[in-house]
Every structure is written in structure tokens, then in C-alpha cells.
Amino acid sequence: MNQEMLVLAGALACALALPRDAAAQVRPGMGGGEQPRTSIRIYGEGVYSRMDVDELNARLAALEEPYSAVSEDMIGFGVGVHGRRGRFILGAEGTFTTSSEDAEVSDERIAELSAFQGSVLVGFSLIRSAGFDLYPLIQLGGAGASLEVRERGAPSWDEVLGDPGRQSTLSTATFYGAAGASVEYAFGGGFFLGARGTWAFTPATDSWSEESGDVLGGPELDLSGPSVRLMVGFGGRGGS
User: Fold this and answer.
1) DSSP-derived secondary structure for 104-141
2) What was the pLDDT predicted at 34?
3) Among 50, 166, 188, 198, which residue's Cβ finds the most Cβ atoms within 10 Å?
4) How do residues 128-139 score in pLDDT, each as one tens digit?
């Protein structure tokens, strides 16, 4: 979980590095001509995405004690912020998702798959008004996944002392890129709703690690795939 929290915190830190006066509306007519309007929007989002887990599931099923399959459907949440100047949009976001179905070995063990990404985004508003925005965007950053394997049920005191290694977390990380489009509508008082659809592109990776170091011979995992986000937040209106 430490990696996931670092990614989310890093995404917000990058965005908050935007100029502090970007939240203020620039008055037209200053400097001899009408200046582009600037604003900042901060939001939370519900996230649905899909990723390629075929090889991971094949390896889980091939174990001496086979696991059931994890789902390719990922559900979670995200946070983000973006600044606007005229039609240009610059921001950052981080998301965390978990598989809608865990892998299991009868009632003995469970394996939970989670994924995370942190990225900078750049967009350009094609259609805008005082409250409405439609813009394409690209995102660049990093992403990763974790497979947490643990025994089911609450252990006794003696079991923990006799077998402290009852839980392991395998993690992998890779480059993240995405492209898509976003639509947002801002109401009075700064409240806004939005929806975003993107397709993620990540190099497939088979480099896994755990707390003690690298893990060899792991399955290939590809985080590429579609993502849909529903956003709600507060900020300035984007139109001129």
C-alpha cells in the first residue's frame, strides 16, 4: 500500500506546483488586451478499468494448489487537480483500483490484485462555454500492480508466532501513458460533474518484487486497457 499512497501523493504534489495565482480569474482588458481566463479544479473520481490478466491467471491455475482466476475488471477511486488557462489544461491525478473478484484456494488462501497509477495530464478544450468543457487529453506517468497473498481467517497468537510469514505482497511497476477525452459541466458556486474515457498504454512487464527483494520467473502483466471515470469536484468555470 505504501507504493500506492506515494503515487497518489506525488500526483497531487505535481499539480499543486501550478502557479498559485491560477485559481484567480484574470480580469480582461489588463495589459492592453483581453487575457485568457484561468482557474483550478480539484476532484475525486470513481474508476472502472480493465487490464490483461490472462498470463497471471494461467500461472495461478498451474500451481500445485491452483487458485481460481482474478477478474480483469478493476474498480476503485482517484483524486486529481487541473489548472486551466484559456483552452489549455494542465494537471495531475492518481488512481487506485482492485480486482472485482479475488483468486482463492478453497478456504485456505486468498490473492488480491490491485493497481495504481499517477500521471500528469495535458488537454485542450475543443468545445467550451461558461460551464461546459469537452477536451481531448493525454497522460504520462507511472503505474504498477500488487498481488497480496494471505491466509484466510484470523490466526491465533500461537500461529502468528510459529509462522510469521502468513502474508506476502508481490509488486510490479511500469511506464504509464493514456489518451482519451473528458467532458465536464460546472454549476454555480464552483461545483462540477464530469466523465472521462481513456485507453491506457503500458509495456507488459514480468519484473516482480517483494519486501525482501526481486522475485524471479513471474508472469507477464499488461496494464493496458480502457478506463472510465466519473468525476465530482469544485473549481472555477472554464469558459471565457
Assistant:
1) EETTTEEEEEEEEEEEEEEEE-SEE-SSEEEEEEEEEE
2) 55
3) 198
4) 887 889 999 999
